Protein backbone atom coordinates (compact mmCIF):
# COMPACT_ATOMS: atom_id res chain seq x y z
CA UNK A 1 0.00 0.00 0.00
CA UNK A 2 2.85 2.41 0.73
CA UNK A 3 4.39 1.86 -2.71
CA UNK A 4 1.09 2.70 -4.37
CA UNK A 5 0.81 5.91 -2.33
CA UNK A 6 4.37 6.90 -3.20
CA UNK A 7 3.70 6.22 -6.86
CA UNK A 8 0.56 8.40 -6.82
CA UNK A 9 2.43 11.16 -5.00
CA UNK A 10 5.20 10.99 -7.59
CA UNK A 11 2.68 11.26 -10.43
CA UNK A 12 1.05 14.28 -8.77
CA UNK A 13 4.45 15.94 -8.33
CA UNK A 14 5.38 15.34 -11.98
CA UNK A 15 2.01 16.68 -13.13
CA UNK A 16 2.33 19.83 -11.03
CA UNK A 17 5.88 20.45 -12.20
CA UNK A 18 4.91 19.96 -15.84
CA UNK A 19 2.08 22.48 -15.61
CA UNK A 20 4.37 25.05 -13.97
CA UNK A 21 6.91 24.87 -16.77
CA UNK A 22 6.34 26.86 -19.92
CA UNK A 23 5.30 24.86 -22.96
CA UNK A 24 8.21 23.13 -24.64
CA UNK A 25 8.42 23.34 -28.40
CA UNK A 26 9.48 19.84 -29.51
CA UNK A 27 10.92 21.29 -32.70
CA UNK A 28 13.32 23.32 -30.54
CA UNK A 29 14.43 20.22 -28.65
CA UNK A 30 15.51 18.55 -31.87
CA UNK A 31 17.10 21.68 -33.36
CA UNK A 32 18.98 23.34 -30.55
CA UNK A 33 21.76 24.25 -32.96
CA UNK A 34 19.43 26.50 -34.98
CA UNK A 35 19.20 30.05 -33.69
CA UNK A 36 15.87 31.81 -33.38
CA UNK A 37 16.95 34.10 -36.20
CA UNK A 38 17.79 31.17 -38.50
CA UNK A 39 14.51 29.43 -37.57
CA UNK A 40 12.60 32.60 -38.50
CA UNK A 41 14.40 32.78 -41.86
CA UNK A 42 13.57 29.14 -42.58
CA UNK A 43 9.93 29.71 -41.66
CA UNK A 44 9.86 32.72 -44.00
CA UNK A 45 11.24 30.52 -46.79
CA UNK A 46 8.61 27.86 -46.06
CA UNK A 47 5.97 30.56 -46.39
CA UNK A 48 7.48 31.76 -49.68
CA UNK A 49 7.63 28.24 -51.12
CA UNK A 50 4.04 27.62 -49.99
CA UNK A 51 2.96 30.71 -51.92
CA UNK A 52 4.94 29.52 -54.95
CA UNK A 53 3.19 26.14 -54.71
CA UNK A 54 -0.18 27.91 -54.68
CA UNK A 55 0.84 29.79 -57.83
CA UNK A 56 2.50 26.84 -59.58
CA UNK A 57 1.13 23.59 -58.11
CA UNK A 58 2.79 21.49 -60.84
CA UNK A 59 6.32 22.75 -60.21
CA UNK A 60 8.28 20.02 -58.38
CA UNK A 61 11.13 22.39 -57.45
CA UNK A 62 8.89 24.35 -55.07
CA UNK A 63 7.83 21.19 -53.21
CA UNK A 64 11.42 20.01 -53.08
CA UNK A 65 12.69 23.33 -51.72
CA UNK A 66 9.96 23.51 -49.08
CA UNK A 67 10.80 19.93 -48.13
CA UNK A 68 14.43 20.92 -47.62
CA UNK A 69 13.32 23.73 -45.31
CA UNK A 70 11.06 21.39 -43.33
CA UNK A 71 14.01 19.01 -42.98
CA UNK A 72 16.20 21.79 -41.62
CA UNK A 73 13.61 22.33 -38.89
CA UNK A 74 13.44 18.60 -38.16
CA UNK A 75 9.90 18.35 -39.53
CA UNK A 76 10.64 15.18 -41.45
CA UNK A 77 7.05 13.96 -41.98
CA UNK A 78 6.23 17.28 -43.66
CA UNK A 79 9.46 17.10 -45.65
CA UNK A 80 8.66 13.56 -46.82
CA UNK A 81 5.21 14.69 -47.95
CA UNK A 82 6.78 17.42 -50.07
CA UNK A 83 9.47 15.11 -51.47
CA UNK A 84 6.71 12.63 -52.37
CA UNK A 85 4.89 15.34 -54.31
CA UNK A 86 8.09 16.46 -56.06
CA UNK A 87 8.77 12.84 -57.10
CA UNK A 88 5.18 12.40 -58.22
CA UNK A 89 5.58 15.43 -60.50
CA UNK A 90 9.11 14.55 -61.66
CA UNK A 91 9.93 10.87 -61.26
CA UNK A 92 13.59 11.34 -62.28
CA UNK A 93 14.45 13.87 -59.55
CA UNK A 94 17.51 12.36 -57.81
CA UNK A 95 17.87 15.02 -55.11
CA UNK A 96 14.24 14.51 -54.04
CA UNK A 97 14.82 10.75 -53.68
CA UNK A 98 18.06 11.39 -51.80
CA UNK A 99 16.58 13.88 -49.36
CA UNK A 100 13.49 11.76 -48.82
CA UNK A 101 15.84 8.91 -47.99
CA UNK A 102 17.72 11.09 -45.51
CA UNK A 103 14.46 12.17 -43.87
CA UNK A 104 13.38 8.55 -43.65
CA UNK A 105 16.80 7.67 -42.23
CA UNK A 106 16.47 10.26 -39.49
CA UNK A 107 15.80 7.43 -37.06
CA UNK A 108 17.87 4.76 -38.80
CA UNK A 109 18.87 3.60 -42.25
CA UNK A 110 15.87 1.41 -42.99
CA UNK A 111 15.10 -0.46 -46.16
CA UNK A 112 12.85 2.34 -47.47
CA UNK A 113 15.49 5.00 -46.74
CA UNK A 114 18.13 2.95 -48.52
CA UNK A 115 15.81 2.26 -51.47
CA UNK A 116 15.42 6.03 -51.94
CA UNK A 117 19.15 6.61 -51.67
CA UNK A 118 19.79 3.81 -54.15
CA UNK A 119 17.25 5.25 -56.61
CA UNK A 120 18.96 8.63 -56.33
CA UNK A 121 22.33 7.00 -57.06
CA UNK A 122 20.87 5.18 -60.06
CA UNK A 123 19.67 8.55 -61.36
CA UNK A 124 23.25 9.80 -61.23
CA UNK A 125 23.52 11.66 -57.92
CA UNK A 126 27.08 10.84 -56.83
CA UNK A 127 26.56 11.85 -53.19
CA UNK A 128 23.86 9.18 -53.00
CA UNK A 129 26.26 6.57 -54.38
CA UNK A 130 28.70 7.27 -51.55
CA UNK A 131 25.94 7.29 -48.90
CA UNK A 132 24.46 4.02 -50.17
CA UNK A 133 27.83 2.29 -50.01
CA UNK A 134 28.54 3.76 -46.57
CA UNK A 135 25.19 3.23 -44.82
CA UNK A 136 23.09 0.64 -46.62
CA UNK A 137 25.24 -2.49 -46.61
CA UNK A 138 22.59 -4.46 -44.72
CA UNK A 139 20.14 -4.02 -47.58
CA UNK A 140 22.35 -4.59 -50.62
CA UNK A 141 21.39 -8.25 -50.83
CA UNK A 142 17.71 -7.36 -51.04
CA UNK A 143 17.96 -4.03 -52.90
CA UNK A 144 20.96 -4.96 -55.00
CA UNK A 145 24.35 -3.48 -55.63
CA UNK A 146 24.73 -0.23 -57.52
CA UNK A 147 25.55 -0.61 -61.20
Keywords for this entry:
Serine Threonine Protein Phosphatase 5, Tetratricopeptide repeat; mainly alpha; 147 residues; globular
Q: H/E series, N to C?
A: HHHHHHHHH
State the separation between the terminal residues, measured CA to CA: 66 Å
Unreliable parts: 9-30
Q: Number of helical segments?
A: 9
- Fraction of helical residues: over 70%
The level 1 CATH classification of the domain at 28-91 is Mainly Alpha
Q: Outline the biggest β-sheet.
A: none
- Give the oligomer, counting copies of the same chain as homo and different chains as hetero: single chain
What is the residue-averaged pLDDT? 85
Total number of β-strand segments?
A: 0
The outline comes out as globular
According to CATH, what is the topology of the domain at 28-91?
Serine Threonine Protein Phosphatase 5, Tetratricopeptide repeat
What is the structural class? mainly alpha
Annotated CATH architecture of the domain at 28-91: Alpha Horseshoe
CATH homologous superfamily of the domain at 28-91? Tetratricopeptide repeat domain
Radius of gyration: 21 Å
| DSSP strand content | under 5%
Task: Write the SSE topology.
Layout: H1 2-20, H2 26-30, H3 36-55, H4 60-72, H5 76-89, H6 94-104, H7 111-122, H8 126-135, H9 140-143
Helix pairs in contact: 3-4, 4-5, 4-6, 5-6, 6-7, 7-8
